[in-house]
Amino acid sequence: MSYQAILNECNPGYQLHSNGILCVECSSGSFSTNGRKCKPCPKNHYMPNTGSRRCTRCENTLITSQVGSTSSYQCFEMIEPAWKGLTEEELITIIAGCSLFLIILVVIITVLCCKRKQKSTGKHKVSQKAQPHPTGEQDEHQYINAKFALEMECRERPKKTYRSCRITKNG
Fold first, then answer.
1. Are 26 and 15 a contacting pair, CB within 8 Å?
2. Residue-level pLDDT at 46
């Protein structure tokens, strides 16, 4: 005849093994007050040792980010965001001010770019003329094509090459 002992509970800091016969220590980051089941240390608590019946609370205002912390190094100070103490009206004022600043900045950049573009275009003189139509009459379509070609040449030439670049229709 054989006998088998089945445990209902273990000492605090331990839990029953799944076989119901053995008691095993709670791992670090957990505890057991009743000897039945180990639980993870709650937030803002830690336990570096095994076999604990309770977890240690983080000092002062320190907190942990998760349950089951195993070291006091996992406790940290919560830093509140700078905007947390502001009223809704103050937040709206700050956001509106920043938005207005960005709009003004975009306008200034756009104006400066346009002025720079105006300075760089229309300054080169090119001595080409639109070729007259074979019949002696100036074909408007041909003139427009020649004018476009001259404008492109004006834009592509270095600034130092010519003082001005003006395209006029002769005749």
1. yes
2. 96
SS3 content of the chain, % helix, strand, coil (to 5): 35, 10, 55
Query: Which residues are CB-neighbours of 127 under 8 A, at least 6 positions away?
Result: none
Neighbours of 156 (CB within 10 A): 8
What's the rounded mean pLDDT across residues 58-70?
A: 92
Q: Which residues contact 79 (CB under 8 A, 6 or more apart)?
A: none
User: Taking the model in full, what pTM does it have?
Assistant: 0.45
* Highest-pLDDT range among 17-21, 40-44, 133-137, 147-151: 40-44
Q: Which CATH number fits domain 1-77: 3.20.20.140, 3.30.70.1150, 2.10.50.10, 2.10.109.10?
A: 2.10.50.10
